[in-house]
What does this fold into?
Amino acid sequence: MASGHEQHEAGHHGPRTLPASLNSPEILSAWRKRALIVFAVSAVISLAFLALPFGKAHILRAYLLGFMICFSFFGGGLVMLMLQYVSGGKWGMLLRRPLEAMTRTYWLVVAMVVPIGIFAGHLYQWWAFPNSEATAKAFAAGLMTKEQQLTANAKHAMLNPTAAIIQTLVIFGILGLITYLLNKWSLERDADPARNTPASYDKWRVRFENLSGPCIFVYVVLLTDAALLWIMSLDVTWYSSIWGLKFLVGQGYAVLALSILTVILLSKVEPMKTLLRTTEQHDLGKFIFAFVMLNIYLTFAEFLIIWSGNVPDEIPWYLARIRGGWWVICTADFVCHWLIPFCLLLSRNLKRDKKRLSAVVMFMLFARCVDMFWIIEPNFHDAASRFSSEGLSVLAYVTVPLAVISAWAYYFFYQLAQRPLVNINDPHLAEMLEPEHAH
Amino acid sequence: MPPREGIYGLMAEFNTPTELVEATEAARAAGYRRMECYTPYPVEEAAEALHFHETRVPLLCLLGGVMGVTTAFLMETWINVWGYPLNIAGRPLWSWPAFIIPAYEWTILFAGLSAAFGMIALNGLPQLYHPVLNAPNFRNGATTDKFFLCLEAHDPKFSIIETRAFLETFPAVSVVEVDH
It folds into this structure.
């Protein structure tokens, strides 16, 4: 019971006072500078990979990985924001402004999807060969197998460039609207002339709930489409009905890790120093532990069902991720994404300790990238042999995602600095200042 | 076992949970470790002041879980490979992915049971007799509206005179000796 406990003792016998300023602290500008330096360095190194004979393809694939992680932060932040509005609770109150900042990275994430659209022909077979004539030619030229040709034709209605652009526009259009409303109302809520009255509390609570409830459902549908379109269709022959849900849980995993890290790092200074109690930190630790469990549950369930079925249509997806050197990545994914966070987060004391919990969530963010790498990269049949012949190229999957994520982080810190770190017109605020109870 | 004789501890009675928690924290700070709070309803701060969370229940739970996963996995291995080998869709006899779900369920079962029974055992239950029930004010107040702190005599720091003086520095309603 190291630092977490001391903090508990300090705030033990009576209510704390709300810090005079709830504005974002100055350290955010220092973080922004650091993110910019990381971006610059990793972007320059990434460009060096262009010199490799196959560098462009590696950069593109690694970019898709980075984009999906940033999309997880944006989309996952949005769904977590809606979730805390419908569930209530002090944990949600604590994360609200960081989550809002994640959703306000909307325009950056929209801009990030553009390069994928431009170079989609190098990633997706269905984009490169968009009709049955083209697939027939590709088959004749040996660029597609018979199965790929036939499934690409069968899935043509959803998987063709026009449909893909429309789907992407619809996804971002609806998510943008939800983001806009939630962020706008959050400011209006604090500016309400009748604030801190039960009537005002109820009015805003009901308004947020009515938007968030249905929109969580809408989000799950849109995310399923996005995950199918951007990732699953990299292998045009494969399908799995749990796919969207797996990405949803992965987003919860990533967003909670990032949120916990953000509030713990912010708690070095006011106002988060007062607002982050050990109680809520412990709750968040338990919450992310649930996502660690749910994630392995879905991932393993998907594997077990496909393994049991042993159907030639489905099995190759796993064979491509286990054989041919991928066993190393598969094992690393299992160990980093589940085993290590699971074992560590079992500990109550760790969840209550700021230093150790922040180290674990940082590791979990890294593990998300390993998982995404394992999902994306084996889709490309040449990948394994490229890595063995050009060992250096694997580094592109470190530097490119790092560049993309640090660019996102820069914008996230900027957005985080735009608003006070806590909603004031919310009855939970008073509860967060109450003395702590142990669990 | 022969009946134990002598003093079990000194018990202070408080009217409010706040006084109880303050006294408990002060007692811990003064070096007392063998002590217990008795309250009519759960008082989380009292548990925290006693450092009650540092128990062995998590360890027992973990050991139970490890035992569950090992037992189930080895049992399934034995059944499928040696006990009753069956050819199921041409798969290898040792098809470990199929063993995971039962092993997982046994982990939960064993961990849950170890936590529950371990907690009961560590609490010294079932227990038909407890010395604090000898104190009349305890019998009357412990389940209704009084809060008690008992500093036990087997604490190395315990001294009948000094401990009594220590407890009397708090706004206790009474400080009574509790016999075995």
The interface with chain B takes residues 1, 8, 12-13, 300, 303-304, 307-308, 310, 346-348, 437-439 of chain A (CB under 8 Å). The two ends of chain A are 14 Å apart (CA to CA). Residues 321 and 327 of chain A are 7 Å apart (CA to CA).
